[in-house]
Amino acid sequence: MLVQRLGRRLLHAIWRHVHGVEPSPIGRDGPALELWRSPCGVMFFHPPIAGDTAFYRTYYAHLGVLDRPPSDPRERPEFVEAARHVRPGERVLDVGAGRGGLSDLLPAGATWQGIDPHLPEQVEGVLRETLEAHAARHAGAYDVVCAFQVLEHVEDPRAFAEAMASCLKPGGRLVVCVPLWPSPLTEIPNFAMNAPPHHLTWWTTDALRTLAGVLGLDVVRAETLPPPRHAAMIYWLHRLLPRRTRPGLYFAHRWSWWMSLLAAGTVVRPFLRWHRAPMPPRARSIDAFLVAQRPGGGT
Q1: Which domain holds residue 79?
Q2: Looking at the domain assignment, is residue 298 inside a domain?
Q3: What is the Rg, in whole angstroms, of the alpha carbon atoms belonging to the chain?
Q4: What's this model's pTM, rounded to 2 decimal places?
């Protein structure tokens, strides 16, 4: 079902005014991008145009991600929950690992291998290669294969998940964490990070269950997670907004939306810069989490 159309000029304006980034490789001219909802509940943009290297380097530089020390992995609920599904001595593949973090939470004897083709520099334990290249050489090699905040960035999430599943041993577990809708992510108007070329899909727990079924995996867990500490900006921005989106309209040139974002952002940014604002215990989730198991293996 078609949800809404997003004009390319508006998309460029959103990225430029919010982050000072051009959303390459999406051009300013051409047909609008369309946001669709599938029968299983996943929302997806068409055509699916993922960000290129220039986009991500500029965007992450703007956010200061590359200069920031790695966060405490215990503050990442998806890491904590994933580690609970790893047994001593098992082999773990972390897809889109970045600087790692999950490895610090694994039980004694477990081995961790990260892959990430977009790293600007070498990181210990992380191979700068694509999932497809790695899967071609390591079919059925891992007990656990993880992807945290990765699936929403790829143009063909089904093919990507199939490549991940091909790396599992019989009885092995696939662990995935993706952005949730509806959630504060989809209620902040003109929220750039939740639009192409950054996020190409939005997920529900039912959509993750469907994905597991397509892959021939048995669902162990499909649920939402508490928001991570680093999502404080999203939580407080959402809470302070005078105006929010409505179902079916997430991006639009509305002065009331722009002024709402400006007012909330003016308060939130300096506050979070100088204070470690707590995340309330009942803060709404922004992530959907899946653990699914390959049949066999005697477990």
Answers
A1: 2-293
A2: no
A3: 19
A4: 0.92
